Automatic annotation (TrEMBL):
The keyword Protease does not apply. It comes from Pseudokineococcus marinus. This is UDP-N-acetylmuramoyl-L-alanyl-D-glutamate--2, 6-diaminopimelate ligase. Belongs to the MurCDEF family. MurE subfamily. It comes from the Bacteria.
Length: 446
């Protein structure tokens, strides 16, 4: 999947244009050379490409791989460090300029796309998949950029990050625009917001699904975590805020958006709170989830409200929350209600989200991606309520992440399952025995 660093019919920018845009000194670099692309990975740059040499974690830095970029024919680098062998446009914070620069190079693709972004601790992936299903059912040529896949008219490829790096994101959006796509569902992580990956992207709507303790290794505390999420709802990014009121963090964000008075607010609740859009009579079974969708009229001047049944093929009461967020965003941005509901009802499943595994075994088996206590509890509450026999959970704590998640994760599993099997799940640089012990401690405390 490729996209020229300019819309069709427009000339590619020059290296001199790029330097002027950055306010950086060009030195002896060829100012008239046309820029053919922008990449952060030294292994994929080619002749005419500009390489973003970005700082990484643990003292690592992209500039350490300058030889690879030189060997592959990179035209120049943008970095906060000199890159040996390459003309380097020096800027104080290359991550902070990467998104805006990539957006400019690709001709502001999100301005031509109805991008709906989804952020929150849990539910992002399911909500983006539900959004894309509703967009497609309404007849829009749609794209999906989630933590699982990047999908468009060309097919799909696996995702490597929840939200792509800035250069990759704008290249993807440019390719979607060039292919005639009209609407895009984009999963937006707190890492992406904190690291400026979505800077330059314009969102038709931004959705907040809720907040629970996670990623505190990056953010430090829940206040900073909310601050990172709130960046998506700034007026320079989003035209509409769709916020779930079903936790204190969503209610705080809604008040913040209201007090600022710059972005229209649409609220949702599947837990009995007063909101613009609500899900009531939520019922989950082993075959899916049903609820009634209630909200305002589906168009200006209708004079009537919405009250209709929705039947999902997705498992778990929490999928009603996700479908509600998706439908509120779709209907608030002009999608036909019948088509939107038909789309979300037609989504057969989301990989790794209470996904059934049938190997001919004489019991139900499911795989769920839940990786924090809140997600584990939501999944297991559904399974507990729909399981007549024993509920056995196999779980573990990934290394290289916030170690404070392990005990609560074990406690959530131990409080709802009959048997908890604790195993390894990618220890990385951590001691796997220590991680297992933390999960076991939580399970025993339940």
């Amino acid at each position: 999947m490729t996209s020229s660093p300019a819309p069709p019919g427009h000339p590619r920018p020059t290296l001199g244009d790029l330097a002027t845009r950055l306010g950086a000194h060009l030195g002896d670099a060829p100012a008239a050379a046309r820029v053919t692309g922008l990449h952060h990975d030294s292994r994929v740059v080619g002749p005419g490409d500009v390489w973003l040499a970005l700082p990484g974690g643990g003292g690592r830095h992209g500039a350490d791989h300058s030889r690879v970029a030189v060997a592959r024919g990179a035209l120049a680098a943008v970095s906060d460090r000199a890159c040996p062998g390459l003309p380097t446009l020096l800027v104080p914070d290359p991550r902070r300029v990467a998104g805006v620069l990539a957006d400019w190079l690709h001709g502001h693709p999100s301005a031509d796309l109805g991008v709906v972004g989804v952020t929150g601790t849990n539910g992002k992936t399911s909500t983006t998949h539900l959004l894309e299903a509703g967009m497609a059912a309404a007849g829009a040529s749609s794209g999906l950029l989630s933590g699982l896949v990047a999908r468009g008219p060309w097919g799909e490829r696996p995702a490597t990050l929840t939200t792509p790096e800035a250069a990759d994101l704008q290249r993807d959006l440019g390719a979607l625009r060039d292919a005639g796509v009209e609407r895009v569902a984009l999963e937006v992580s707190s890492h992406a917001l904190a690291l400026h990956r979505v800077d330059g992207t314009r969102f038709r709507a931004a959705v907040f699904t809720g907040l629970a303790p996670d990623h505190l290794d990056l953010h430090g505390d829940m206040e900073s975590y909310l601050e990172a999420k709130a960046r998506l709802f700034a007026p320079e990014r989003s035209q509409l805020a769709v916020v779930s009121l079903d936790d204190e963090w969503g209610r705080r964000l809604a008040r913040r958006v209201t007090d600022a008075g710059q972005v229209p607010l649409v609220t949702t609740s599947a837990r009995g709170r007063r909101a613009d859009w609500t899900a009531v009579d939520v019922r989950a079974s082993t075959s899916g989830t049903r609820f009634r969708l209630r909200g305002p009229g589906t168009g200006a001047g209708t004079g009537t409200g919405t009250d209709r049944a929705v039947g999902l093929r997705l498992l778990g009461e929490h999928q009603a929350d996700n479908a509600l967020s998706a439908l509120a965003a779709l209907l608030s941005t002009g999608t036909d209600a019948d088509a939107a509901v038909r789309g979300v009802e037609g989504l057969a499943g989301v990989p790794g989200r209470l996904e059934p595994v049938d190997g001919g075994q004489p019991f139900r088996a499911l795989v769920d991606f839940a990786h924090n206590a809140h997600g584990v509890e939501r999944a297991l509450r559904h399974l507990r309520s729909t399981t007549s026999g024993r509920l056995i959970v196999v779980t573990g704590q990934r290394g290289g992440r916030d170690p404070g998640k392990a005990v609560p994760l074990g406690r959530a599993a131990g409080g709802l399952a009959d048997v908890v099997v604790v195993t390894d799940e990618g220890a990385h640089d951590d001691d796997p025995a220590r991680l297992r012990a933390l999960v076991v401690r939580g399970a025993r405390d339940a």
